[in-house]
Amino acid sequence: MESKFESNGTAVTEFILLGLVETAGLQPVIFVVFLFAYLLTVGGNLSILAAVFVEPKLHTPMYFFLGNLSMLDVGCISVTVPSMLGRLLSHKRTVPYGACLTQLFFFHQLAGVDCFLLTAMAYDRFLAICRPLTYSTRMNHTVQRILVATSWACAFSNALTHTVAISTLHFCGPNVINHFYCDLPQLFQLSCSSTQLNELLLFGLGVLMAGAPVILIVTSYIHVAAAVLRIQSSEGRKKAFSTCSSHLTVVGIFYGTGVFSYMRLGSVEASDKDKGIGILNTVISPMLNPLIYSLRNPDVQGALRRVLTGKRDLA
Questions:
Q1: What pairing do the DSSP bridges indicate for beta strands 176-177 and 14-17?
Q2: Quick one: which of 246, 255, 252, 251 has its CA closest to 292?
Q3: Distance CA 117, CA 111 (A)
C-alpha cells in the first residue's frame, strides 16, 4: 500500500501499522487471543470496581485508589486493542495521522495517571502503617480526591506536551510502523526532521513522570519496611506486608515495562522486541492487576463472589 501525500508531495497523511504478525494464517489466532484478553481484562477490572462499590469493607482509601486503577486499566487496553482488532477484521492496516496522534495522547494520558496513582497508593500504605493515629485525617475523602485530580492534571500536561511536540515533526515517508499502536519511539524513527529535542523532552518528562514517583514509592516502602520490622508478632508483620505485596507487584510490572519501552530510543532492530514490551504494557499488565489484587485478599474475594453471584452478605 502506498503512502498518501499532501498536495506539496511531502507530508504523510496516514501511517501503516504492521501489527503483531504479517503472516495471514496467524492473524485469526492473534484476533481470538487478543479478543479474549480484552474481554478478560475489561471484565476483571469492572468486577473489581463493582466489588469496591458493593462491599462496605472496601470503602477505604486503598480501595478507592484501586477502583480508579481498575478504570485506568480498562481505558489503557481500550486505547490500543480494539483498534488493532478492527484492523485485523477489515484487513486495513492504515491509520490517519490525526488518529495516530489521538491514540498517542490518550495512551500517555492514562499511563501518566497510572504513575501518580501508584504513588498515591504507596503514600496511603505509608500513612496507614507508619502514621496510623493520624491516618484518617491525613487520608480523608478530600485528600483522596485531590490526589486523583492532581494525577489527571499532571498526566494531561505530559500527554499534551508530547502530542504537540510530535506534531511539529516532519513526516515525508516512509510511513510504515512496525508495531500494533502509535507511540513515540516508533514515530521518532519515521521523522524526516531532527528528533533530538523530542527525545530530550521524552527523557526529561520521563524523569519527572516516572523517576520522581519511583523515588517517592521506594522512600515510602523503606519507611514501611522499617515500621513493619518493629512489629513484635510475626502474624502482625505478615498482615502488614500482605497489604503491600500486591501493590509492589503491580509497581514492578508497570515501571519495568515502561523503562524498557522508552529508554531504548532509536533502535530499529529492537522493534520486534518492542512489540512484546508493548503487549506487556497494554495487555498483560492491565489483565494481571485484578488477579494480583484479589489473589491473596479475602475481602476482595468475598466481594467478588457476591458481585458475581448476586448474593448479599447477611452478617
A1: parallel
A2: 246
A3: 10
Task: Write down the residue that cell numbers 487478543 correspond to.
Answer: 34
Q: Distance of CA 204 to CAs 210, 247, 313, Å?
A: 10, 26, 50
SS3 of 140, please? coil
The CA distance from 34 to 79, in Å, is: 13
Residues 6+ apart with CB under 8 A from 288: 250, 253
Residue with cell 487471543: 33
Q: Are 287 and 41 in contact (CB under 8 A)?
A: yes
pTM given for the model:
0.86
- In the numeric block, the cell 479478543 is attached to 35
Q: What is the pLDDT of residues 88-119, one digit of tens each?
A: 998 888 999 999 999 999 999 999 999 999 99
**Secondary structure (DSSP) of 81-104:** HHHHHHHHHHT--EEEHHHHHHHH
103, 131 contact by CB (below 8 A):
no
pLDDT of the residue at 146: 96
SS3 120: helix
Q: Is 199 exposed, middle or buried (0-12, 13-18, 19+ CB in 10 A)?
A: middle
| Maximum Cα–Cα distance across the chain | 75
